[in-house]
TrEMBL record:
Protein name: Transcriptional coactivator p15 (PC4) C-terminal domain-containing protein
InterPro entries: PC4_C, ssDNA-bd_transcriptional_reg
Native source species: marine sediment metagenome
GO MF annotations, alphabetized: DNA binding
Single GO biological process annotation from the record: regulation of DNA-templated transcription
Domain Transcriptional coactivator p15 (PC4) C-terminal: 12-59
One Pfam short name: PC4
């Protein structure tokens, strides 16, 4: 997975946006990572979806600005 961006949430948690290939398809992964003993590890908290859904996902996120 290639990391696109990171957002620090706390000193030991961050949200990582990455892109990579899984079973022959490009996938987007948005996942919480936790710092354990000076190393970052991905958690089960997050989503992973096909790259072809990115436009719809962005549209959904932009709707949050209305609130």
């Amino acid at each position: 997975m290639k990391v696109i961006s990171e957002l620090a949430v706390t000193d030991n948690k961050k949200i990582v946006l990455s892109i990579g290939e899984y079973r022959g398809k490009e996938r987007i992964d948005l996942r919480q990572n936790t710092l354990i003993k000076k190393a970052w590890f991905p958690t089960k908290r997050g989503i992973n979806f096909d790259l072809e859904w990115i436009d719809k996902f962005i549209e959904m996120v932009e709707k949050l600005k209305e609130y």
